[in-house]
Amino acid sequence: SDAVSTLLNGELSYLAAHQFGNYAVQTALRHCQPSQREAMLAALLPHLLALSSCKHGSNVAEMVLLRASPEQLEAVRVAIFEPPSNTLTQLRELMANPYGNYVLQALLRMISPAHRENALVLIESETAHDNFGRAILAAAAAAA
Q1: Which of 117, 96, 83 is nearest to 52 (CA)?
Q2: How far apart are CA 136 and CA 100, in angstroms?
Q3: How far does CA 59 lie from the centroid of its chain?
Q4: How far apart are CA 120 and CA 40, in angstroms?
Q5: Contact of 18 with 48, CB cutoff 8 Å
Q6: Interatomic CA distance for residues 131 and 51, integer angstroms
Q7: Nearest to residue 56, comparing CAs of 89, 86, 25?
Q8: What is the pLDDT of residues 37-73, one digit of tens each?
Q9: Which phi and psi (to 5°) does residue 65 adopt?
Q10: Model pTM score
Q11: Of 12, 61, 110, 133, which has the fewest CB atoms closer than 10 Å, so is most exposed?
Q12: Contact predicate 99/52, CB 8 Å
């Protein structure tokens, strides 16, 4: 639709984090044509960490994960839980953020049981008094 084209040609990541614009982005992801959804996902996935760290963007980040293809979801999982440099910067940032930890919980619900188990072991090892590790682990246990 023309509205989705306008979103794609505008400041999509800005709108995704905006107090009201995030609703438009979520609605577009839900109802647009598959080719437009692919374009939106391709534009938003590189900003997933930044979106995850703000109140309004985290809602869009969860919607992006819900609409992502299995390959895109796997790329996100690897980037967070198996980064090539073996530095867990993204995982630590998500665990420490009051909004990002919910995006992390959403991701855990979407990955395979084997990957989830490995991710939970990693989260447990990174849990500290100054992050949301305990809350993430409790939510995962409640969902199991």
Answers
A1: 96
A2: 11
A3: 9
A4: 30
A5: no
A6: 18
A7: 25
A8: 999 999 999 999 999 999 999 999 999 999 999 999 9
A9: -65, -40
A10: 0.90
A11: 110
A12: yes
